[in-house]
Amino acid sequence: MIERTLVLVKPSGVARGLIGEVISRMERRGLTIKVARLLVVTPEMAARHYAEHKGKGFYDELVEHITSGPIFAMVVEGPSAVKVVRRMMGATNPLEADPGTVRGDFGLDMRRNVVHSADSLESAEREIAIFFPEGGELRT
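Request: output the structure for the sequence above.
Response:
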């Protein structure tokens, strides 16, 4: 089934020049970048994005990191995109991520992770609406 999902290269990944690497890996896998943008996440956007973590001890660190500089957000489409992208990104904790995954190859710190990808179709649609309020479709 063709799905779409959200992928973010977070500020630490942008600062390290990993946008092209992440895009290249997805395109080589056969996924399509439908729309993308470089932006700075506002505290309000961060609060919506991390709503399920509000009240947890690491919440403030997540918000601080994602608002600390520009991110590269993209809507990615392809067969079973959510599952495929999650496997490509690797375990959330980069110390547990397999070599060959983005986090396994480039991640150093779970709280300042280099990438994010939605964990379900429902999360993907909710997150796409945060970063692409116009619907996540390329407009010409």
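The chain has a mean pLDDT of 94.
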